[in-house]
Protein 1
Amino acid sequence: MQTADSRTGVSRVQHHPEFYFADGNITFLVENTFFRVHRSFFERESEVFIRKLAQVAQDGISDDSAFQVEDVTSDDFATFLWVWYSPNYRLDRKSSDNWLVILELSTRWQFLEMRELAIDQLQNLKMDPVEKISIYNKYEIDRSLLLPEYKHLCTREGRMSIEEGEKVGLFTVLAIHQARERAMISAVAEECRSPTLADVDDEKLEEILKDIFNLNQYSTTASRRGADIHAPSGDTDSQSVQAQGQSNVFPIVGTPRSGANRTTNRPFGTGRVRRGFHQGESDI
């Protein structure tokens, strides 16, 4: 339970009600909340955490020497931990917003198996086609998974709005426009009277989209598992052509705090993941 100084209204640190385990062996401080969990989860898969924790192997064992995790809310960190401590049968009870948080953090911290799980779960949820394309572009997820969304944009009435175009990016806008033109040419070739996009053969449309988006050549395994993943950008359509191998390394764990359980002036709050990392920073 959160407490506050009645005179100042400043929130005091607290133990998370669900993710503070007596047998935990590493303590994190996120905003005003302590999380005591199991170190093996962080060292099993994430090269980011492996490197950082190896530098101070004996720290983070108590509240007084807790590691401070930066640029994430306590609510989002709890959502991230939930994946490890939840029974499998509860995985489908999370909303797309929850899985987007998990996708964001697993990509940022290079938890490849968790990233793949988040993508699998998002595939099972109903999402707006434009929003889904925007998200998959941002996190550089296999475009072949977006074939149904591309087909929807091709066959629906009307063109994309300016707002939708800004979300999906210039490349996708131009590719959909080209696919629609080729689909109409195909319908005319089939001698349809007053052809519309609805007259285009479904298999032919898929063939056109796969050709334009290079879906046959896209590496499904690499993009789903996050091979060479880096911090998500806001416009992968323009930035994906940058030279690969350029490493983006970000600070995620702060120096252990001595006396971390004292009153803090930082307000306790909820919200979505905050992007406080900056391209090119190197603190690890």
Protein 2
Amino acid sequence: MNNNYKIINNKIRIQEGLAPLTPDQEKKYNEFAQFTQEKVKGMVQDLRYQNKYIEKSHLVRLLIAREWNVKKSQEMWIRWIEWRQQYKADNIDPIEIKQELDLNKSFWIGYDKQRNPTLLIKPKRHFPGQVPEEMFIRAFIYRIEQGIEMADKVGTGKITVIWDREGVTSKNFDYSMFGVMKKIVTLLQDNYAERLYVAITLYPNFFAKSMMALIKPFLSEKSKSKIKLCDNIGQLKEYIVEDQLKYFENPDLVVDPEEEKRQNEIAQRLEQEKLEIQ
């Protein structure tokens, strides 16, 4: 096993947060599951995706996010479906968002110390008016959906996001970005329940800290605890493995096809290790 990855209590975390339910939790889950099964056919017309919206692990995550309050979980589930339909999250074609993807503002850089897929975001590659806001948000959703698939394959169920401010100048400043960032942060909290492991801002300046201060009131206490600030790469090393350092030591590096192939091989190995421990 690769020594870059942390082992917890001699076991790999498998679907964190989805431990066996207590009798009371099982009762609440059954009530919630019955509600979703009755409602999903009327809300999701495409039969290909109905099972996705009533899948047990996701329903349990919603219950955890709402502290096992069934009514609040039901409301959250309805909003989740409505949000996914608004952005057509089940049908994002990479061709539709190619203009944004080609800018390499965000890409996956492997797995952190906790074995979570790690999304690197480079705001220095963002310039106001490059792409429509909806394309920007749909591209972000596309990346998150990729990460969730990766996380489920290796068994952590969570992702790490790093906002790397290296090289950011006033040219990258976008007056609309506060509204967009608020949407993205709310998007993660409300629509990807219990999927975020940690969100890190690298090299935060006064403006970045001020923006976070403005966004935090819209977050739950649990979400606030997942936001971390790293002033330098040394602090970032607490979270990432050695293989990921090159993306910060060489800031202009992007994932090329060979690197992507290597990361897929790592994912397959991690998935096999998960199965062996199970």
Protein 3
Amino acid sequence: MPANTIAAPVLRSAVSALWKQPAAHTIPTLATIALDTDTTVSTDSNIWITSLPRGAYSSARTVGMTHILEFSSHVGRTASSLAQMVSSSSNGSDRKEPLAWPATDPAHLATVLRPLAAAALAQYYKSNNLHVPPNPISSNPNGISGGRGSPNDSACEETKVTWLVSTDAATVAVHCAPLHAPGVGEHSALVAGAPRALAGAKDSQWVHDRAALASVLATGGYNEVLLASPAEAPARVYEGLSSNAFALVSTDSGVELHTAPLEDVLTGTILKIVLDVAREMQLPVVFAHPDASVEGCKRWVAAFVTSTSRLVCPLARIDFAPVAGSPTTRPSFKLDAHHPIVEEIVRRVDAEVWKRALLIME
């Protein structure tokens, strides 16, 4: 099993906030928010999600402790996911009555989630004796990143903020826990598992479905599990369990950045930033599943995954899970985790993170 250097977990208590009175044309107030700071609230957002009714969820991150990165994008994805789930289950048992409030409207959903997230963060900082520095994201003219470097290296202790809206919109909850960014050292991924059934929706059912594959990450051996096409089909990478995947591919005319067609994956917020950065760099982007066949991998010069906690995480090695019925096992594939193009993408994405964070706590 490969060894990664994973950032040591921070011993903090988690906080859960529940909107007690979901209803039309109202927004949460302190009087209608139930804050749970009991030690039984798991710091693992996956465990918290599986304790709630099925719904649409999203995991965001703070920047400078008081802001949330791409808050509007996360809210929009939640609303879109909920709309897809409600539509796909309209003939089933998940939804029998109309939603009590317009949870599938991104603008309205934002007015609900913003005060709920603010209350949860305030209680999380209070419970863990965390001090919020003044003006952590004030403008700074020093260079493209404002002289700040990676948000994952910031002096601020950032937080993972996860929310869920159930398919009937009767449950609206927010969870705050430590953000565990990747540690230093080389990172690796394992190609294993099939793509998700409902690619465009962030459905909490997926947290249940991926549990077996997620156990691979729990060992600390891999940074991510990459989902690929079935064994009998050409090996094509879709996405990670909780990330988007990119391969820098060598071609006759130079290099191209390959990532799966957007309709086949959940388009993460960091993926969108990478696409903007690639456009600025005039780096060709090809929306095609990275070819993970033996011959296809020979053209990869670098690869990385993107997510809320990882931002851009370069991969040094990719392993392949054994295929049932196959007498052979594919060897590991090594990559250049310090390729200059990838390092430039990392730098530019880090800079954009500071720019794209919305103030949540006044």
Protein 4
Amino acid sequence: MDLKNENSSNGWTADINLEKLHKMAAELIVPGRFLLRFLDGVLVLVTNLMARILGSNPVRRHFHLVLSGVVLFGPVLSFWVPKYSIFANRNHYLYRKFLKSTWGWTCVFTASFILLLSLSARHSISLCLRHLSRIGLVGLLWWGCQRLLTLLEDAAGTCYEAMAPAQDTQSPASSGQPLLLLHEGQTKASCLRANMLWRGYEVSQDILILCLCCLLLVEELSAFGPRLVPTKPPQRPPGAPLRFIFLLCVVLLAVWMFLLLCLLAHFPTFPSQQLGGALGYLGWRGLYQGLYRLKTSLGCPGLPGEGLLTSKAYYKHVQ
């Protein structure tokens, strides 16, 4: 009898605990759903606003002019920025984690956006791969620029080793200035690894890749605005994952612009940075204003949104 009573009491308490858990879950589901709907509404509002801004004709046609003005006149900010700011330190977290892997961040986020945009508009793997090939060509261009600039810097520069002047030297030229011993046959990388001095002409690769990535992001993200336009027959509206990755790309664009201003204001090097910006602009001009505008039948990937949008929305977008 005691065993039966104990078993029945245990079953009764288990039922009570399950009922309590169901009630607690039901109480949490309602505010959870309300919070998710609120966040989804905010996401839709923000992404629609950013898509309208980035897809507008003034931004698409004149963003490269704004970026050129920033690169040309950004070093003037060095007269006003504080010298002891946290961004005046080259070892800052933003420089170490983002600047050294600018292309990696841009490639991952932009490729994810293109993939989701292509699959949501057209369920075609070949069309998706064609649009992803644009990112591959930009990556190939960046790799070639790195190799070419490294070769030019090694050919145009020289490596020196600083040596303390002898104590018995009486010449006034040697007082206060270290002697420089020339080392021939050294590359810039090996010279700096040996803690020696490198003197020569160079092009800022940081400014080059930042400008190229900013122009790339604006071009690719501008295709999201026409995707929101109602079409006939109606397409499925963009889902939360596509909107979220679009918002992350917008944040990444803001980070690159901020890093560009920080480098120009805190570490101005004329004309190295301006040459880097010019090369980034030429790379964007040659690809998005030249190669990608050719017919896709010639093997070119085409412009952003080509083949994904309706003909009316696409032609309005490219004009």
